[in-house]
Amino acid sequence: HDVIPGNGVLLHFTSCLTTSVPVTKSQCVCVCVCVCVCVLGGGGWTPERTDRLRWLQVDLRERVEVTAVATQGRFGSSDWVSSYALQYSDAGRAWKQYRLDDSTGTFPGNANADGVVHHKLSHSIRTRYLRFLPLGWSAEGWIGLRVEVYGCSYKSDVADFDGRSSLLYRFNQKSMSTVKDVISLQFKSQRADGVLVHGEGQRGDYITLELHQGSLALHINLDDAKMHPSSGHVSVSLGSLLDDQHWHSVLIERFNKQINFTVDRLTRHIRTGGLGDSLEVDYELSFGGIPLPGKPGTFLRKNFHGCMENLYYNGVNIIDLAKRKKPQIYSVGNVTFSCSEPTAVSATFLSSSSSFLQLPADPAAEGAEGEGVSGRWSAGFHFRTWNRDGLLLWSGLQRSERLLLLLADGQLRLTHYRSAVQSAEITVGEDLNGLQASRGSEIDHELNSFIVIVFFLPGCPAAMANQGCRNPTLAFQGCMRTIIINNHPVDLYRVQQGILGNYSELQIDICGIRDRCLPNYCEHDGECSQSWSNFHCDCSGTGYTGATCHNSIFEPSCEAHRLTGSASGFFSIDPDGSGPLKPTVVYCNMTEEKVWMVVGHNGSAPVSVKGSSLQKPHVMKLNYSATLQQLSTLLHRAEHCQQEVLYRCRKSRLFNTWDGTPLSWWLDRGGERRTYWGGFLPGVQQCSCSLAENCIDMNYFCNCDADRNSWENDTGLLSYKDHLPVTEIVVGDTNRTGSEAVYKVGPLQCYGDRFLWNSASFYQESSYLHFPTLQAELSMDISFYFKTTAPSGVFLENLGVKHFVRVELSGPSVVTFAFEVGNGPVVLTVKSHIPLNDKQWHYVRAERNVKEASLQVDQLPLRFLEAPSDGHNRLQLNGQLFIGGTASRQKGFLGCIRALNVNGLTLDLDERAKMTPGVSSGCPGHCSSQNRLCHNRGRCIEKSSGYVCDCTHSAYGGPHCQKEVSVSFESGTSVTYTFQEPFSVMRNKSRQSSAIYAQSSKSRENVAFRFLTTKAPAMLMTVTTYHQQYMAVILAHNGSLQIWYQLNREKQPDVFTPTQHSLANGKLHRIQLHREGRDMYVQDINQKYRLSTDRELNMIRSLTLGKVTGRAGVDEEVLQAGSRGFIGCLSSVQFNHLAPLKAAILNRGSSLVSVLGNLVESNCGELADKSSSRSLSGKERLKNSEQSDSAVIGGLIAALVLVALSVLAVMLRFLYRYRLQHSQQTPSVKEKDHPSQPELNYRTQLSLHSSIRDSRKEYFI
């Protein structure tokens, strides 16, 4: 086998790689392979230090299937290669770089001259030529290389189609009907469009496989097109840049309606619609084109131009039959059986700052460089790129004239500068970077000018700056080929050899463009776009956010919404977080005792049933507002669920009284028949009256089974979670005279969240909980709460052979997130300004994806690190996941961990702890349960013998954050809260790393307040940003409520009017709204609105209550309301985490709070509340004045009970105060001021310690 080093000298190998001394005879030993090639086993190869082409090329003499490679340094030297790239080619030209499964193109090499490093290729390659390109080498010496190649012989049948030819495979009968099809082939194409396979039948069945704009599209229809038009049609596309003149593999497998479509190891699973499940093709199947019947050489669509290899249809080798000229195959046009190689030579421009190709004005003229050419001049080339901007060509003309060809925002812009002030411009094309079609664009352009001195493709070298050659934008990054100057093709091989022109940061004879959106790393239907070096995910409208649309913007449950201070209303919840399930809308009923989640369906009205029998029963299918998968996750997360089935009957039985056969039943979420009608014990054919032992006839288990002519009731409450919800009701005994049944299925109702407080306590450093291996190859998010008094400990660890992930408390105030995916260990650290081992709950969230890694601790600034664009990206773990410790039983965590969530799945710590020594389920303390100790966003803080409520971020005050904070506004009064720009944001404008911006980046606002006024128009609240966005809540001229959102200055603002009637009526009104992406909910009015965009309020500048003056860019109606201000009472104002009204009262004089006019703290909110309550009570008295005497007697009894309870309460209060005074005199339980933990770094100037002290009172249990 021949070896050609980069300097062009032909060498022959003499021995294999060895770990001892070289030998003079080839000794390759290959296990389980057919071919083994050894290269330069003696001294090895090393290039000259002046050599510009540093690569080693191996000719395998024929195409073989290469499965592995190995490298070794040069014998007896300090020369070796530490990393390299591998390229391959069929003909020694038009090379392609081999990439691993994670798209990495770099192979780790040697660390010394003697060791052998083997690499088994994750996918084999079929090639004749290999190139080893050193990327890194010995720091002690130079490049030194010995190589070994492993593989098997490869035989194939090839057909070459010239774009005007095809092969027809004719069936033995008129029509072929199949329920199973397998089509496999390899192809390489010279064009972006063309039909590879086509077949169709007279009834409308068809199958077509075609290239379309560089992607491979499969179209198939299994239905009768006349009877069911388009019902069975399905189309799917896979792949990109498939016209790169390299081999690509295709496999189509169909069984009935199920189809597996694979292109280059990427597979899509699809299912056809319609009724048919067989493919009926008439007469023939065509390959390479669709010939028009009766017109030889005429085709309906663009034909395929390129080569096909090993083409099989249901086990039949089509090309072999064609080569042997079998009668089943008919050849149209010129089909040959050897693959012609492309003649175009590509060049890859690698750098956006330093890549250029310098060429003379007329490459055909000897010594033409720099001499100038007069007369007509032209240039043309093909290009392909992902970038929307770049300099394609600069050409110096006579005197100071020059030509510039730019790619500007996806368009070509040709500018002829006649002087510094005079120019002419032409713009053509659109989206020529291929961003919209996710493919490269290929286009020819001809440039005409007068005298050309020299020109550059693309970009300008620094040395030419004095001649006016400067890059007005980024230099072009991408591929060019077929460069023609004055009708003379440019020989890029001469450029590569240094004979013609000059170049920098250029690869010749290879197009290195790659599709970074294939596979698509954007999750949850995020749209992928890309540049040369990176990709971007557009998460608009998905309900997810983050670099790869991984993180849900929604809360996981109604209980979680309660913790954010929300009142009852409709909410989007995402029970599996970053998992695969999409969010769903539910109603959250926030009662005093419980938070109920309500999921409705289409059968909420009572249904009357007559005339049904067991043979022809009445059937009602229930469709819920959530999918069954979503419902299953919601039920699993809830503590308790129930569903009421109201069932009334008249001479209609539920069970046959003779043999107990069910006459009516319901189906659970799994489609199983259930015959019990109440309770939580499945499998018992009973109704609620039987469980309560109060049926009208105790001989039966249901009231309806008594079969009476009167209306009876068997309403029941179903509460066995594994069977809920009811998906279908079947009624079968209403066909007798006088028989009738009426039923109504209530909504699914659940309360509680099992995972919010799912926790475990670790008492021994050697103890831990273990779970199955973390499944987090491409993306991972880990979140949990912890509290501890220990200075350090590992929260979580999972190991692989080389990879790992670990989250730990590495110091009393330091949390560390570390992992390894093959690019070297990555460590992110967040350091808190207060100790984290203070026995209080702290929040940790660590995330890693293919684009970046981040670590968040409490509300401290987010730490993040971008991933290398061409590095390894798959995290490969194989050990168990350890919680609270490590496999070595060292550095274990001592304390409590709760709500541990990994990729949307909450680990059941509580259950696992019950069977693990050194670990107990639950966490001790008053703040370790769902008990509502602190309300309205109040934070529960543990004390040595009690707890306190921190109301810092609540709009309320008092011991339990329930006291209204109200202010009376007069004419001209305003309160403005100014948001400081965080320091971390100022350092890195592209990332918004403080908590407020992290929250805003989720396109989420939570607003709540109460107000009372008689004046309109009025400005209630306005929020503005540094990007001239705003949000405003106003009362219009007629007193109606209006909500304004201006998120995109290029569009009109979104304006919503939830109420048409006037709210300026002197009554107290509560407004609560929250936005999640494009969805905005106004809770107390139960209205949902859709915004035109899901952009966030980016970098909030200020929030103002009351009068606003001089705001540029604000609409006229908002300005009018702002100029009028607000006159009346504002109470308990909350904006996300912020309570601006409370901050204004407690922090007057702060640089962040500005108060204009007279601001008077009052109890107007409470007074209005009491007034409305008294008014309501009066109405109730009028309404109930006609009640019976029994009700009056009951009221008197209730009053007596109330008096007794009041006396008891007074006595308990007296004892409590006595105990409290006594405890405050005891030094051992004296409360110290607990320093407030600031929620955001921009609030460090606010001293809220006094407000915290005022709002706290310790309770001892």
UniProtKB/TrEMBL annotation:
GO terms for cellular component: membrane. Residues 549-601 form the Fibrinogen C-terminal domain. PROSITE patterns: EGF_3 (PS50026), FA58C_1 (PS01285), FA58C_2 (PS01286), FA58C_3 (PS50022), FIBRINOGEN_C_2 (PS51406), LAM_G_DOMAIN (PS50025). Gene3D superfamilies: 2.60.120.1000, 2.60.120.200, Galactose-binding domain-like (2.60.120.260), Laminin (2.10.25.10). May play a role in the correct development and proper functioning of the peripheral and central nervous system and be involved in cell adhesion and intercellular communication. Belongs to the neurexin family. This is Contactin associated protein family member 5b. It comes from Pygocentrus nattereri.
